[in-house]
Specification:
Largest sheet: none
Helix content: over 70%
Distance between the termini: 48 Å
Radius of gyration: 22 Å
Shape: elongated
Structural class: mainly alpha
Order of helices and strands: HHHH
């Protein structure tokens, strides 16, 4: 599927960028504690990719909620949360590019990181709760149907 390929490409790019960032911090600048607080461009881009991939996965599960439930309320809330997550992560990337110093960034923009994580967690909880609820209802209905058919053959 084309969707799977695009997710794999994004995940691969994220892995490459995060590995480059870790290499720069732990190998290239080994022992240089002043460099630990610097935000290289790879970290800036990693934040965007992480938000994008996470939002795509959350959107897929929101789609599954819609397929199982036939109700649009929960998926729309989840899709909105995923869009907010992407916007926050892009904003975080822009802020780290602007400040270039993680200490300054955390002082001025730490709330964005907290908000992004809270939104991601909220969408995950929404998706898990909705899927669990609707799947348990479908399971109960299928068990009742199977039991009624079994009782028709067994006296």
């Amino acid at each position: 599927h084309d969707d799977n390929a695009s997710i794999r490409i994004l995940e691969t790019l994220f892995t490459i960028l995060s590995t480059c960032w870790l290499y720069e911090i732990s190998v290239s600048n080994f022992g240089d504690f002043a460099q630990i607080s610097n935000a290289p461009w790879t970290l800036d881009i990693c934040v965007t990719f992480q938000g994008l991939v996470g939002a795509i996965v959350q959107s897929f599960f929101a789609y599954r909620v819609w397929v199982v439930s036939k109700a649009l309320l929960w998926p729309i809330l989840a899709w909105t949360g995923a869009a907010v997550r992407i916007a926050l992560n892009i904003s975080i990337s822009c802020a780290t590019m602007k400040t270039k110093d993680l200490v300054t960034f955390s002082e001025h923009y730490g709330w964005e990181v907290t908000t992004s994580l809270a939104v991601a967690l909220s969408v995950d909880i929404l998706n898990v709760t909705a899927l669990s609820w609707y799947l348990s209802r479908l399971k109960s209905a299928s068990h009742r149907y199977a039991r009624s058919k079994t009782q028709a053959f067994v006296p």
